[in-house]
Amino acid sequence: SMTCGGVWLKSCFTNPLMDLTFFFLSLKLRVCVATCNRADYSKLAPIMFGIKTHPDEFELEVVVLGSHLIDDYGNTFRMIEQDDFDISSKLHTIVRGEDEAAMVESVGLALVKLPDVLQRLRPDILVVHGDRFDALALATAAALMNIRILHLEGGEVSGTIDDSIRHAISKLAHYHACCTRRAEQHLIAMCEDHSRILLAGCPSYDKLLSPNHRDDYMDIIKSWLGDQGQECDYIVALQHPVTTDIQHSIKIYGLMLDALLSFNKKTLILFPNIDAGSKEMVRVMRKKGIEQHPNFRAVKHIPFEQFIQLVSHAGCMIGNSSCGVREAGAFGTPVINLGSRQTGRETGENVLHVRDADTQNKIYHALELQFGKRYPGSKIYGDGNAVPRILKFLRTIDLNESLQKTFCFPTVKDCISQDIDHILETQSALAIDLGGTNLRVAIVSIRGKIVKKYTLPNPKNHKDRMQLILKMCADAMRDSVCLNCRILGVGVSTGGRVNYQEGVVLHSTKLIQEWSSVDLRTPISDELHLPVWVDNDGNCAALAERKFGHGKGLENFVTLITGTGIGGGIIHDNELIHGSTFCAAELGHIMVSLEGPECSCGSRGCIEAYASGMALQKEAKRLHDEDLLLVEGMDMKLTEPITAAHLINAARLGNCKADAVLNKASTALAVGIINILHMVNPTLVILSGILASYYQAPVQHIISERALISTQNIKIVTSELEEPALLGAASIVLDYATRRLY
C-alpha cells in the first residue's frame, strides 16, 4: 500500500524481519466499515462477510457507533459480535433527547470522537451507508482527514431530510456503489464522475435472493408471534418519525395503531428508530396498550436473517420503513407505505401508497385491499450479485490516484451505464416458448437479439414440464452473468387460452397435455425472484411484430401464425386485444364453411381445418394412401413420414390433386382474412410461421378479387422474425420493466 510506503522504508534500517512482514501486510487494502444502526448493518454485513472471505486481499476494521450501543434499541452491536466480527472501536455518540437539537449534538459528538479512531486505524478506504446523521459525521471526518470514502445507496430519493443528508454524503464520497439505474443517473446528474460509480444493486439482496432458502420459517414466525402465528396471516408494522414534520408523523402513527387494532390480525410491531420524535411515538404505542394487547408483539430488534423471513411470509407490511419499499418487493409481499418518508423511492407494484394518511378509515381500507395479496417479486434494487461487484470495484481502486475529487457535467440521457469493467450490462429478458414438441428458453436482449437459446423436448406431464422449465431458467440465469446480461423479468408464450393478468393457463391446446388451470407465474417468480408475464403464443407473435418486426410504429395490424395450427393476435389502437374471457384473436377458428371438415376445436369449417399444417398433412396422407401424391421428380423414402411439405412439393411438380387441396386451403385462409379486414380494418396483415411464405401471394391475390374495395389494397406481408414466440414473450418484459425503471 503506497500510503504506508514511508513507514516501511524507515523500518528497513531497524528490523528486517518485521519489515518483510509489514510489507506483505501493507499489500492488503485496509477497509474500515462503519455501522450506526440495525438497518445499515443489514446492508453492510454482506460486504463485511465478503471482505472477510478474502483475507489475502483485504484487512477489515469495524467501527460501531450510534444506536447500536443504546439499550433502548436492543444493544444491536451484539449481533455484530455474534457474526464473529472483531469490533475495532465502539463510539458512544448519541445525545439523548427528543428534538432536532439532539441529533445535531450527536453529529457534533461523533465528529469529536472519530478523528482519534480514524488516525489509529489508518484505513485506505472507509465504507459508509445511506442517509443517517451518524453517517454524515463519518463522511465529514474521513473527507477532512483525506481518507477515501465509498458510499453505498447514494443517488436515491425518499422525500425527507434524509435526502439532503444522503446527497451531502455523496458529495463528500470518492466512490459510489448504488442500487438502481435511476440512482446512478441521479449521481451523474449531481456531477459525480461516472467512472467512479458502480451500479451494484443492494447488498442485502444477496442474502434475500440466495438460493439457500430457510425451511424453518414457520419456527421463526411462531417464535416471534406465538403458536397462533400462521403464514400470510399476520402483519409486520414498522413506522419511523419524519424529522421534517414530527407532530404529523406522530399523528399518522396513532392512526396506524388504531387501524391495526380494528383490523384484528396478529401484528409484529417494531420500535421506531432513534430519530427525533421516536420517544413520543413509543409513548403513543404504550398509551394504546399495544405491548399488552394479545394480537400484538412489540419488539426492539429482530436479527435481519429472521426479519426478512418474517417479511417474506407476512400477509402485509405497513409503515414507512425503507424495507417495505425495497426488500419486501423481492418477495412480492404487499406493502402499505404511510406518509411522505419514502415518497420518492422507486417501488414495485406490491406497494400501495397512503401519502395523506389523515384518517383511520383510509388506513383500514388500505389494509383490506392489501392484506393476503401476493405480487410478483421484483429486482428493482438488486439481482443478488452486489457483493462480488463491490469487491471487484474495491480491487481496482488505485491508491496512487489523487484524492482530489473531480466533477463531471454530463447530460443524463447520454450517460453510459458501466459495470466495474466499464462494459455495458445488456438489459435482457428471459423468454420461454411452450410448444407441442419442444420447450425453448432464450436470453433476449433489449434490441431483440437472441443471445443464447436452449431447446429440449417438452415433457408429456405437468410435473416433469414444470421441473424442466425451472431448470432451464436456472441454467439461463447462471449463463446470463457470464454473458453480461441483466435479466429484468420472464415472459412465457404458450398455446391455448391464458389469463394474462394472473399468469394462468386456463385451457391448453391438444398439443400440450396436462396444461389447463396451470399457474405459471407463481413457481417461476418464486424460484427466480423475477416478475413473470404469461400470454398466448398468437398474442406473443403480434407483440414481437410490434416491437421488432413489420408492426413497429403501426397502431393497427393483425398477425396470423400459419404453423401446425393457426393462431394470431390483434393490435388495435396500439394495444393488444385480449377480450372479456381472454379468447380474442382465436383467428384459426373463424368459420368459413358450414359443412367443412372437422376442426380440432370440435366445430366444422374453421380456417385451421383447411389451412393449418395438420390439415395439409392429413390431406397429404389421404392422397398418398390413394396413390395420388407421388409424381415424377419427387424423391421420397419409404419410411419417411408424410408432411405438408410433400403436398406443397407435389403441387409444384404438377400434381393437380395436391394443387386443388392447396388452392382450397389458400382460399379458406384468404376468406378468413377478408372477414378480419372487414371487422377490424387493420393497416397491415402479417403472416408468420412455416407456411407463411407459401400462402402470402395467393392470399393477397384472392383478397384483391373478393374483399371490399376499401380493404383490397391492405398488404399481406410475411414475417421476417425467426422466433416470434420468444421475441414476443421477451417484449412483454422489456416494455414493462424498462418503463418502470425509467
UniProtKB/TrEMBL annotation:
Q: Name one GO molecular function term.
A: UDP-N-acetylglucosamine 2-epimerase activity
Under Pfam families, the record lists: Epimerase_2, ROK
Q: Which GO terms describe its biological process?
A: UDP-N-acetylglucosamine metabolic process
Reported EC number(s) for this entry are 2.7.1.60, 3.2.1.183
Leader peptide range in chain numbering: 1-34
Mind telling me which GO cellular component terms the entry cites? cytosol
Question: Which annotated residues bind an N-acyl-D-mannosamine?
Answer: 497, 509, 537, 586, 589, 608
InterPro entries, alphabetized: ATPase_NBD, ROK, UDP-GlcNAc_Epase, UDP_GlcNAc_Epimerase_2_dom
> What is the reaction catalyzed?
UDP-N-acetyl-alpha-D-glucosamine + H2O = aldehydo-N-acetyl-D-mannosamine + UDP + H(+); an N-acyl-D-mannosamine + ATP = an N-acyl-D-mannosamine 6-phosphate + ADP + H(+)
Q: Where in the cell is it found?
A: Cytoplasm, Cytosol
UniProt domain UDP-N-acetylglucosamine 2-epimerase: residue ranges = 56-394
Pathway assigned in UniProt: Amino-sugar metabolism; N-acetylneuraminate biosynthesis
Active site, UniProt feature: 537
Sorted alphabetically, the keyword list is: Allosteric enzyme, ATP-binding, Cytoplasm, Hydrolase, Kinase, Metal-binding, Multifunctional enzyme, Nucleotide-binding, Phosphoprotein, Signal, Transferase, Zinc
The UniProt record gives the binding positions of Zn(2+) as 589, 599, 601, 606
Recorded hits in PANTHER family, A to Z, give: BIFUNCTIONAL UDP-N-ACETYLGLUCOSAMINE 2-EPIMERASE_N-ACETYLMANNOSAMINE KINASE, ROK (REPRESSOR, ORF, KINASE) FAMILY
Which family does the UniProt entry place this protein in? In the N-terminal section; belongs to the UDP-N-acetylglucosamine 2-epimerase family. In the C-terminal section; belongs to the ROK (NagC/XylR) family.
Whom does it interact with, and what assembly results?
Homodimer. Homotetramer. Homohexamer. The hexameric form exhibits both enzyme activities, whereas the dimeric form only catalyzes the phosphorylation of N-acyl-D-mannosamine.
Query: What is the recorded name of this protein?
Result: Bifunctional UDP-N-acetylglucosamine 2-epimerase/N-acetylmannosamine kinase
* Primary gene name: gne
